[in-house]
Specification:
Elements (H helix, E strand, L loop, with lengths): L12 E9 L2 E9 L5 E7 L6 E2 L12 E2 L1 E5 L8 H11 L4 E2 L7 E2 L4 E3 L15 H13 L18 E2 L2 E2 L1 E8 L5 E8 L27 H17 L9 E8 L3 H18 L11 E10 L9 H22 L3 E3 L2 E3 L2 H5 L1
Parallel strand pairs: 6-9, 14-15
Antiparallel strand pairs: 1-2, 2-6, 3-5, 3-15, 4-9, 7-8, 10-11, 12-13, 13-14, 16-17
Length: 340
């Protein structure tokens, strides 16, 4: 049984820690790989990224596998959440072995952040190491193949896409080869997810089933969005983050190619994208459970195409799942409130 989420890749778990109330609107999401780790890579396209340990994922460097990926709110401050995940992994002897003892490990925990500072009203409210630990504990406590909570949770708690509320979304597909490809996103783009002329989600134009809102619904939505744009503080920075995972046996170089092509999925669903005030970052994880056909050098192509498709679908699901939020920091309506 599948759940149409990142956790359809066997062994992948997802956990969230959500911080709301008292001026907070932020959080952290952790993707926990199967014990022993997964081959990992990254591709950064935005002009304002906030990341940690991404250099370790370069195919030219020594680290081959990682145990977890951290996606977090709080801009660069929130990268401290990775410290809590690192400590949790160290306690369990999970990481790059650097000595003879069972705890002689260095957990390499790549992380990336979105900008959500002040969206709850308190600019100083942001995730920390304790938030990261809570998120990885939530992931570890979940069952294999459990559904992924979507919308305003974890790193998507304070996410905004254009003038709409953003959040977490996930999607998966089973290829004809038996390989699973899945994605999880934190949709927080400076660009819009909605075509201003029709009210249709850009990402749904690529899914082949588009329902156009009735004229009066779209007119009311445009008026509401214009009012909000005039009253909300304009965000300086945003960022869409994604993790694309597969059970295919990929090298680090192949995983890096997957991370790169998956950015196409963001470009289909958010316009404009990869701006100087975005930090768009995509990680790729491969568990290696299913070999690629060695006699077919282009076998990777279907995985590359599926990764981009799943990122598009995950962004659509994130925006559809996000609920309206009003705080001292602003008002961000959910797509469902305007068009649903």
């Amino acid at each position: 049984m599948t759940v149409d989420a990142l956790t359809d890749v066997l062994g992948m778990r997802v956990g969230h820690a959500t911080l709301t109330g008292a001026g907070r609107l932020t959080g952290t999401t952790v993707v926990l790989a199967p014990e022993g780790g997964a081959v990992a890579a990254v591709d950064v396209r935005g002009g304002g990224p906030g990341t940690k340990e991404t250099d370790a994922l370069d195919p030219r460097n020594v680290v081959q596998k990682v145990e977890a990926i951290v996606l977090t709110g709080g801009s660069a401050y929130g990268l401290d959440a990775a410290s809590g995940v690192m400590a949790w992994l160290e306690e369990r002897g999970r990481g790059v072995r650097v000595g003879p003892g069972p705890t002689h490990v260095v957990p390499v925990v790549p992380a990336a952040c979105v900008f959500d500072l002040g969206r709850g009203g308190d600019f100083s409210a942001r995730p920390d190491a304790g938030t990261g630990r809570a998120a990885v504990e939530d992931a570890a406590a979940s069952a294999v193949g459990a559904p992924v909570r979507e919308g305003g949770v974890g790193a998507g708690t304070g996410a905004v896409v254009g003038e709409l509320k953003g959040g977490v979304g996930s999607a998966s597909t089973l290829l004809g080869s038996g390989i699973t490809v899945a994605a999880l996103v934190v949709a927080n783009g400076a660009g819009s997810a909605v075509d201003p002329e029709t009210g249709v989600l850009y990402g749904e134009l690529f899914q082949g089933r588009v329902e156009y809102p009735e004229t009066h619904v779209h007119r009311a939505a445009r008026l509401r969005l214009a009012q909000i744009a005039a009253s909300n503080p304009r965000p300086l920075l945003n960022t869409t983050l994604a993790v694309v995972a597969t059970d295919a046996d990929l090298s680090k170089a192949q995983a890096q190619k997957l991370a790169g092509t998956a950015h196409d999925g963001i470009a289909r669903a958010v316009r404009p994208v990869h701006l100087l005030n975005d930090g768009d970052t995509v990680f790729a994880l491969a568990t290696g459970a299913r070999p690629l056909d060695a006699e077919a050098p282009l076998a990777l192509n279907e995985i590359l195409a599926a990764g981009a498709d799943m990122v598009t679908r995950a962004i659509v699901r994130a925006v559809r799942a996000a609920e309206s939020v009003t705080t001292d920091g602003g008002t961000w309506p959910g797509w469902g409130e305007l068009y649903g």
